[in-house]
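Predict structure. Chain length: 558.
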Amino acid sequence: MRLQQAFWFALTMAVSLGFAFGASRPALFNPLVVHDDVRQHVFWAPRLHDPALFAGDWIAEYYQAQAPAGYQAVYWAATLLTDAIWVSKLLPLVLTVVLALGGFWLAWTLWRRLDAAALSTVLLVWIVWQYDDVASATPRAYALPLLVIQLAALASGRSWLALSILPLQAVFYPLGCALSAVTIGGWAIWQATPARGVPDWRAAISWGPLVRAWAWLLAATALALGLTVWGQLDAASFGRTVTGAEARSLPEFQQGGRAAYFVDDPYRFWLESSRSGFALSPRDPLLGNLPAMVLPFGLAVAFGGWLLLGRLRLVGRPAVPTAGMLLVVVLVASLGLFAAAHLLLYRLYLPARHVQFSLPLVWSLAGGLCWTLLGERLGEGASAVRVAAGRLGLTAGQGSALLGIALLALHPPPPGDFYVTGRHPAIYAFLRQTPKETLVATLPADGSNLPLFGQRGVLTSFEHLLPYQPGYYEPLRARTEAFRTAYYAPTLVPLAQVIQQYGVGVVIADADLLERRRRSERERPPALEALLDRCGVLKERELVVVPAACILAAASTP
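Prediction complete.
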């Protein structure tokens, strides 16, 4: 038995890590390739050891304030050994190991079959790496690994461990506490409810254990809530979160906006969107370009149909342990929170966040068991299959699970399209040599990579222009518009005013864009373009670095 456990566990871990390495390959072998969201949530991490970096920077202050304490602690410890960019690339591999460990434990506890546990876990990691959550190394990367371990503890009767993860979630991914608390409470009710057929079911309810379970749950939830509130004290300095009514009137939340939520297409809104829907955007070419989620979901639906037909005695009902009801509790809790988040828009953050981690888990575990049991059932009726499996020393179910794992391994998640590449290494190196308090002014599209790779604050950046808190967004939008207007102005006076007002030390101009603007507006060309040859100290590709002092001197010259 131990040899079998070691085999299935080792196979699960090897294939899972293979998926992670394959999908993250673009970042692992190129220092200038990073996950898209790392530019938002990691750029400020070096200031954990060097407070002089980004000192007083509006954008850095905001994003560090949003970061939970546990997340900051991990980056503080890990960056003692290497830089934050490399931590962001290696951390997803560690989280994949945690996810596979927890997934195998959970599936084994639910199904009591090593073959089904291995296939379910591999299928889970396969679908997870189609998405960018674990790969992001941001707070949401912890959501699923923590949830899986919590559910495994719950299913194995270790309620104390499941409850202890609630405060842990509060310091890594606070939004996950809602699903966990509802799931633990629902599971306690289910366990206390008597089986069907009991004459007086009210009297048969195990009230004592139920009351104790809920008392401990309320205590753990109160602790998690306290930690969440404590962790949001800094973020509260930027004011309240935008309301749903306000968002409906703002262009940033409309189709094509920076935080597009309200889109006209019902399919995109309810199914494809990673903000309002079920996050079905990753597609699989081998599935006819259908969403990749169709694979585990289709197996789970087939399993549900099999159970229904079995209950109706139309086919032989598969043997499923009653512990599998935990997945039903998770499903109901997730969909309930998804609906509540739509009704209370932005008070529970984005609706998709309440289903995009839990539903893949439900579909994968149910789908893995379905495939294994189906192969076992077919093997029982086909002597050739039974004989072939027997010669390999396997049961039909084990052979089916191995076949499923092999098929997934032959079609791994593709290298992630959620990575971006820094295209201006010379400029990044130049900025790192400037004083640490240097503020860089550039157009929003050109400023997204500079804080991460150049380690200097920027006046504005498209990547950081998130409109969820007006107290943060409105000042940032105001200076963005002021700089954009000054950037294209026919005189240098407006640009000099922006430089003086915000303390800009360096301006990075897009020479190609300025040239196109000059050709389209011959009568009033941008004055900045004329300074590029005289004041530019470095040109790389289309970008030119211009010291602010040279612009101020030129603006003051009659």
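Summary: The CA atoms of residues 531 and 551 lie 8 Å apart.
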